[in-house]
Description:
The chain is an alpha/beta fold.
Amino acid sequence: MNQILVTGATGELGTTVIETLLKTMKPENISVLTRTEERKTEFEQKRLNAFIGQYNDVKSLEKAMEFVDTVLLISSGDQGDRMQEHKNVIDTAKKKGVQNIAYTSRSLKDKNTLVNKLMTDHFLTEDYIKKSGLKYIIFRNALYMDVLPLFVGKHVFEKGIIQPAGNGKVAYALKAEQAEAMANALMTEKFENQTFNFTGGDAYSFYDVATALTELSNKEVIYKTVDVELFKKIMLDNEIPEPMVKKIVGFNLDIKNGQEATVTNELQHYLGRKPKNLKEGLKALFNL
């Protein structure tokens, strides 16, 4: 890898990838794609090659990929046509003679039984990359532990946890640790069409989350699993927008069905240390 383009460079994932790359790579060997002039200037002050652009602007992608041999495609958000945006990046990489592409996918057990259909875009993107002829690394990342404060809510220590996830488990990992491991893999692997599952070292249910929060806060936190219809009513009564409720329900049912429970040691291998466990992560996320 001589010149890498990191897309989604201003997000937490992209930022940590770049910080880790800079420990070994020269800044002039790193290109970044950003949406704003302000962030472009910040990157240039660090001597990185910065380009203003976005996934739905093919001309900006072409400009950013000049003289690049490797692209890290950080998954787009689900607000627009995510699949088309991903295709734009992959097609442009092929057109500009890029050799290698890496993609931030999701560690999910079975694409054919997903409830949260938004996640199928990841598998479709993987398939598109494989058909492109580019050499690839696919990073299948576990659900970020960082989302737990959003899942359990602001009043978790007063009201406990209410979710329709049953005893389903998730191999949570911190976003920053996944990003660090990805950067390490990018610098050491030869892009031999690999797929890595970056997960935590264990899988945890919301019962485990409640227990950990209880121990950390000395306040009893109880997890109550409820049926989907009651959960929807609670969310809507709390003025959560219906599209968001649908998304949260999808995540929960996939958790209940074991989609998020796969555990591997690949994250640990590329981190060079054990990733933070649930209790360690929650302590940092909740400032406990």
